[in-house]
Amino acid sequence: MSFQENVSLKQYSHYKIGGPARYFFAPKTAVELVEALKKAKAENLRLFILGSGTNLLIDDKGFDGLVLKPETGGLQREGNFVRVGAGVAVSDFLNFLIAESLSGFEWAGGLPGTIGGAIRGNAGAFGGETKDLVKDVISVDVQMPDSGLIKRNRAGCEFGYRNSVFKINNGREIVVEAVFELQPGNAEEIKKAIDEKIKYRHERQPLEFPNIGSIFKNVDVRQATPEVEAACKHVIKTDPFPVIPTAHLIAEAGLKGKQIGQAMISEKHPNFIVNLGGATSADVKQLIALVKSSVKEKFGIQLEEEVIYVGDSK
After folding, report:
1. How far apart are alpha carbons 141 and 80 in whole angstroms?
2. How many angstroms separate the CA atoms of 51 and 284, rounded?
3. Around Cβ 96, how many Cβ atoms within 10 Å?
4. What is the pLDDT of residues 169-183, one digit of tens each?
5. Is the pLDDT at 305 greater than 80, yes or no?
6. Which of 162, 173, 281, 294 is catalytic?
7. Which of 13, 214, 266, 281 is catalytic?
8. Structurally, what CATH architecture does the domain formed by 75-195 represent?
9. CA separation for the pair 22, 298 (Å, rounded)
10. Tens of pLDDT, residues 138-158
11. What residues have CB less than 8 Å from 3, skipping those under 6 apart?
């Protein structure tokens, strides 16, 4: 087994931002993944696990270590359960569910990324969350790849708001596959619901520019003062608990359209920072810092990023 060297990560980033990886490998199976981990451990390489690059800000200097991009595939129906590889795109999973007339994941229409990434960050939208449908998750321990695969049920995954044990452990484990429990449905109705979510995203999100989705988590209303909660009462939504949309706070802070270099806070959806062409990670980081300080000053709320930073500096 040999790793590629000096591979540009920009091509793997939805942001089209980022420097090179010292080493790069895309395992197609769990066996290849385990062998790659063993080699990385033997050579004492720093490690980063790359999904589809949808929520990553990759440093302009790149990553001085091994970037693994698991491409474990597979979609298999077992009654109302579906076994799916972590490297499968959410869009491909949804197409499979339409073909099989299985319902429950419609909320993910238009969601970018892979199944592994959705599990790691407990992706959610329109009141639904990945955890709601998870039965089991199979993973491998990065530090002890010879110890065998780890199987967790839903409770064992310790899902939280945009969080899971896989995210909490910060790369200690890599998701290999998962089993989801769905419900029988009507293919046409399932497709219609998915298409509605896709249309909604296109109408309200700046998908015409490279972006990595929402930069910040929405704000739990319990974090807000009574005065701020009252002022934002008209925009509070359930996701899956009452939250104040961060896009509203950013807009109220007067930051829509603010630009640093070729990075810009979207006027269409202020919780997106878009790449106008040629943006650097430094440009984006400066805007993130500006948003956090401005919202803190105006509302007394400390925003929390959804972004994963890749590289030596944040």
Report:
1. 29
2. 20
3. 17
4. 877 899 999 999 999
5. yes
6. 162
7. 214
8. 2-Layer Sandwich (3.30)
9. 42
10. 999 998 988 889 999 999 999
11. 23, 24, 25, 36, 39, 66
* In contact, 175 and 238? CB cutoff 8 Å: no
Global model pTM greater than 0.90: no
| Annotation marks residue 139 as catalytic | no
Quick one: three-class SS letters along 69-93?
Answer: CCCCCCEEEECCEEEEECCCEHHHH
Residue type for position 25? F
Instruction: Mention every residue, 6+ apart, whose C-beta is less than 8 A from residue 162.
Output: 121, 122, 123, 124, 217, 306
- Cα–Cα distance between 304 and 192 in angstroms, integer? 34
Find the angle CA(38)-CA(12)-CA(34) to the nearest 5 degrees.
15
164 given a catalytic annotation: no
Instruction: Please check whether residue 235 is in contact with residue 245, taking contact to mean a CB–CB distance below 8 angstroms.
Output: yes
In the chain, where are the structural domains located? 4-68, 75-195, 206-310
How far apart, in whole angstroms, are the C-alpha atoms of residue 255 and residue 267?
9
Residue type for position 126: F
Q: How far apart are CA 173 and CA 142, in angstroms?
A: 5
In this chain, the answer to whether the domains covering 4-68 and 75-195 adopt an identical fold is no
Contacts of 300 (CB under 8 A, 6+ apart): 224, 225, 228
Residue at token pair 């929402």: 214
3-state secondary structure of 58: strand
Burial class (CB in 10 A: 0-12, 13-18, 19+), 299: buried
22 in Cβ contact with 63 (< 8 Å): yes
- Tell me if 13 sits within 8 A of 53, measured CB to CB: yes
Report the CATH architecture of 4-68: 2-Layer Sandwich (3.30)
Q: Name the class of domain 206-310.
A: alpha beta
Pairing mode of beta strands 102-103, 134-141: unpaired
Catalytic annotation on 162? yes
Tokens of 60: 């302009």
d(CA 192, CA 30): 35
Assigned token pair, 95: 């197409």
DSSP letter at 305? Answer: B
